[in-house]
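Progress report, Aim 2. The chain analyzed during this reporting quarter is listed below.
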Amino acid sequence: MKSFKNHLSLVVALLSILFSIQIFIIVDRSIEAYKENLSNNYAVIIVSQKTLDNETIEGINDIISDVDELSADSVIKRLNSGLNEKNIELLKLTLPKFYKLSLNYYPSPKQIKRLRKDLLKNKSIIKVEDFSHNHDTTYKLLLLFKNVVSLFSFVVFVVTTLLIFKELRIWQFKHSERMSIMGLFGAPVWLRSAVLFRLAIVDAIIASFFAFGLFIYISSSTWVKEQFSNIGIEVVIYDIVNDSALLFGAAMILSILLASLIVLGHKEEV
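Predicted structure tokens for the chain:
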């Protein structure tokens, strides 16, 4: 029963770390998907004194992906208060040219400022509307959310790592007498500490499989898919090949590394 409890505590601690890692990955993917969705709906409007071709505008900055000239008809309809056709045609000739710029990706505030500066270098462009206030607010909220999740994941990682280290220490003390006897007979350090490494490796494997099952279940959950659908994004919650390899590698490396540190520390004490 005690052995089971020791295994359970290590497995739960490792599972907590793997859970925090995968949650961070999901959040990062969600933010990138949301930024891509925002980039499809976000555009910069420029006003030019004369007609500009698409190639000229796209060459101003690499972030510009597409250019659409906005028709003046919609503006004129709002201003039309009994104007005859002749006056409407004259008004069309006097109005400046409006262009809608689509971007390759959702830019940072610094990139928006750079784009605005580059556009205004063109003497024909007299005004740039980049909706910077709304853009900056949205971008900062995304960064804040990501930073909060990153901090939470880091705290979980540190606390559970200390817990795993403590549990492995306990196992080392329980088998210290046997390890000392093996040392007297000339057994190498790796052989004396075999039980500790076996515990670390077995628990890492068990925690990994629990994590695989948990995230496969979460990724197939209809409720989770609906939450992402409600905000208009599609996210790969769990990539069975890549994410499984990452989580398994993280569990094995962390367990073996902590076990190695304990063995080296014990060796120095002797």
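The CA atoms of residues 41 and 229 lie 17 Å apart. The two ends are 31 Å apart (CA to CA). These observations will guide the mutagenesis work planned for the next reporting period.
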